[in-house]
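Worked Example 4.2. Consider the chain below.
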Amino acid sequence: MKKDEFGPELVIEVYDPKIKLEGFLVIDNTARGPGKGGIRMTTNVNKEEIFRLARTMTFKTALADLPYGGAKSGIVFNGNAQTEDEKKALIQSFAKSIGSLTPKKYVAAPDVNTGEKEIEWFVSATGNWRSATGKPANLCMRVFGKPGEKCGIPHEFGSTGFGVAIAAKIAADLSGISIKGVAVGIHGFGNVGSFTYKYLTEMGAKVVLIADSRAAVLDNNGLNPKTINKWEKEKKHLDKYPQGEKIDPKDFWSQKVDILIPASVTDVINESNYRDIKTKIIVEAANIPMSEEIEKKLWEKGILIVPDIVANAGGVISSYAEYKGYNPKKMLDIVEKRITKTAKIVLKTSIKNKKNPREVALEIAKSRVKNAMENRNS
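Applying the procedure from the previous section yields the following structure tokens:
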């Protein structure tokens, strides 16, 4: 874990021997506001991964110019071997252990294997409406002193995928490529990947390649939206998908597409596959889909890369909208405006100065965080 001028401010390990809870919370930096970051539940989640993700959130929230800092939490979870009741017990025990830090220091959200249901469990355990965002739409509270209600905006509204699609269109426009008919590949077909597919298809893009944890499907004519939507709603895996050509998941990265969107897990693009990639644009829908070293090598090959801290900020922008009590329509309007503004600044500067987009994005983000730190200490 790299400690530097930005943080981390607080690293907590939680253990409950009764239910074998092992969890982590990293609050990286709160100079701009409470640390914002989701709860990740995977078999091999660890403190180092959570720190890397918390640092990403520090810069992502600054780049989107939101009144948040960066944080992240993780709970070791074997999804296949644990029941829903066991999962709820893990989340609520974790929530109670860190509850005193929410929402002043940390505001939770959905992430891998956590959605609106899990966030409702978390909020119920902390006893504080503001301890997390991504809550169910029907989970409301009265606003003291004002008429009306504030309700949750679950990530099932697709804010992250919507932002990724907006970022992809901007990158295509700046590369002289029309989004209509452009060939797209999406790795990962959970909440982010499926909504990215939806919004890009509505823009006229042709998604020809998708993959989930079990299989990859290729159809150079474009995957059928009706079939895909039915498959996604029924939460089926792609290994049984009835159309297109099944390809070995390892061969996903060697398929030629115009826009490649990693929307699955951390470090999915790595030493074993990055040399096979044949694309013009990479839009990072997942957090840290590759190391900065590999990212730089791909950029040096001439691939325009939209970094995660730009492309997938729709989720945290949605969190801000929920925190403010906005409705989903206003939330999506804000996501579009902020993603558009940030993506254009970063990519235009990158192209003009022939500079790695991540370097450009980090310079802006670091400057904003440093200013906030200086103002807090003055």
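The domain at 159-314+342-360 is CATH 3.40.50.720 (Rossmann fold). The chain has two domains: 10-155, 159-314+342-360. Compare this with Example 4.1 before moving on.
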